[in-house]
Amino acid sequence: MTPLAAATQLLEVVSATLAAPAFLGWANQCRAWLQNRRAPSVMQPYFVLRKLLHKDVVLADNASSLFRAAPYVVFGTMVVAAAIIPSMGTGLPMSAAADGIALVGLLATARMFLSLAAMDVGTAFGTLGARREMMVGFLAEPALLMILFVAALLSGTTSLPLIAEGLSSHALGLYPSLAFTAVAFVLVLLAENARIPIDNPSTHLELTMIHEAMLLEYSGRHLALMEWAAALKLFNYACIGFALFVPWGAGNEASGPLGLLLAVPLLAIKLVVAGAALALIETLSAKLRVFRAPEFLATAFLLAVLGLLVHLLLGA
Amino acid sequence: MSLQRWWERAESLPGRAAGGRLVVHGGEWLQVATDAAAAGAQLLSLWVTPTVDGAGMAHVALLIDGAVLLLEQMVAAGERYRGLQQLFPAAARMQRAAADLCGIRCDAPDQRPWLRHTAWSAVEAPLACPPATRPASGAAIDDYAFVRVAGDGVHEIAVGPVHAGIIEPGHFRFSVVGEKVLRLEQRLGYLHKGVELRFTELEPCDAHRLAARICGDSTVAYSWAYCQAVEAIAGVQVPLRAVWLRGVCLELERIQNHVGDLGALGNDAGFAFGLAQLARLKEELLRATEVAFGQRYLMDVVVPGGVSVDPASAALAALVIEIGRIAVRVRELRRIYDDHSGVRDRFAGAGVVLPELARQLGLTGLAGRASLQAADLRVDAPWAPYHVLGPVVAVRRDGDVAARVAVRFDEVDESCRLVAAFLSDLPDGATSCTVTLPAAGRHGLGLIEGWRGPVLVALQTTAAGRIQRCHVHDPSWQNWPVLEHAIVGNIVPDFPLINKSFNLSYSGHDL
Lengths: 316, 511
Description:
heterodimer, A: mainly alpha, 0% strand, B: alpha+beta, Beta Polymerase, domain 2, Cytochrome-c3 Hydrogenase, chain B, 2 domains, 40% helix, globular
């Protein structure tokens, strides 16, 4: 492991963990602006986290150790995921341990713990949320895998940094197959991160919730970790998107420390654009009925398959 | 016509051209109700007045072709009166509430409490014996017998009375299979605060302030209905200018609520843009209202004998301009709602109440008009100033959320027109007159089409001219049970949207 690789690895994990709430705050700010509202500060998610970390934890009497462990597992999984996604540099030592398929598995692990914990206390809403989350999850996972397969076929590897490296070296040539998968990826991102049109992160209506319903029993530092993990998940998804569809600008061994330094502002720009785009999509759409979610995610899967076919048939 | 013989026996109601009060005995009670139901009567309210030693008087107010029939029957101690739930399904809960408050029961099979939780016990009746003589209730755990639904994969979701958002308390028990709702049962009464008992402790000419606070979003409708009852007993003629200004207030209240609810409906469909825009328009309207009337929500503007404020003509002119502007903006937003495929998809086909079911269950007011029940007191039983300037009643037949939204949009437009029309020929003169109640036991009735539907106030004075009994009735009584039907077959996450499209009152219902 070269010192540069170690530095890249460390920088990525630390900056992803620390910057994730700001990305969420930025998306929320854009959303408020687009609705002609006065926006909360970009720092708002940090204020919320600080508040929650200062509060005592209130636990249900029948909460098991799984319920208490889940926030740490979910948060930890998201940090590990951040370590294998090439957001700033492609020379990631950790990425040898886990490729894109393992990443999908990591995200599934987090989902499983979150859902189990939601059902642990036995309230109607937790179970309701967990059930809906599993429905969204089992439809979104195949679509995400299919998206990764297209990229893997294009670059001949399943390792995310190598995919990013391979795709960025292909000059500025556009792959038609990637265009299909990019749309599919946006749909999966919206569904997986509990955004409109699948879920409404700002709703107070407990009967309509998916992700929030699973967190209703959490409080204090547990809730803080869960909220932080959700922000980190959104950040990770954005970075997966960058790695697959706009991989240019990530530092590598060849570009040296300067490349890594340049990658930081470039990532910030990408995030700013992505956050604004996310807010725009959310403002323009209404929430779908729960039973429209399968159609929505089936569309994502279909687009990913189309991407794959385009690649196999046209070789592009 | 069999109803005619009953009308002939009825004595006239003070202050009402059409309608009457009929005191009956024995089997006539059910006979009159049956004849009225056959003639297409609409149940306005059912209540009981306890008299002495466990006896009481049962009352039912029916609306038949624009005329109010107030039917009354003595119920002796220990006796039960005949329940009307077979003729008017909405009567079931009113009868249960009357039993809770007065201790006088009917013969209906469902004898579960309705308004009573644990604040008093089953043998007590707050309206029958005043609190001083009432034994302390041993508050036990509220054990309410919900109807169970059995079957493979059926389970219950219990929601409320404490919700995740800041909303009113009500308990909803869903029986579901997966996401599909098989049955919904409501449990209300959490906001019971003894309003009807409190009325008896107040001076009749002060109690309009209590009436105005029963249900904050319908304060004009309630205080007007109360004042109508008081003025009927006193036999006074309210100055024309005051009547016209009351009409303006009632329509402003309708616009405020519809605009606010339309935004909230957008938000519940995940379309926060609608909420942001319509909430802003509502706020602008509230500010214009405050400039003209000195009150954002028009509380205590309607007082016995007239109105408490006489707005300056400049302020009213500004209000008309503001209303015109709001009407235009709301029409623009309506186009956005109509054109947005996502919003349309959520609204259309959700929470359908078919016209036939609406008729059977007596769905009333705004929700009724969305299910082809073209009833509107402003047209059917017009009172001043609506006998001069009436609205065009907005009616839809689909009975879904989209229909209720469409009716609201239509009514905003129509109310904006009415406000401008009222203000354009606002009579000059005084805005109030003195009201003195005669020292005699009298009955007065107030009936106003609020934004939700007909609000009824039945006032009875003692021989000393004080309040003997004041019964207030919110249209939510008729519409809450229909909501239980509207949700059946829909999915659980659509309930908040369907609920919001009715937007029924908790406070006005629980009293």
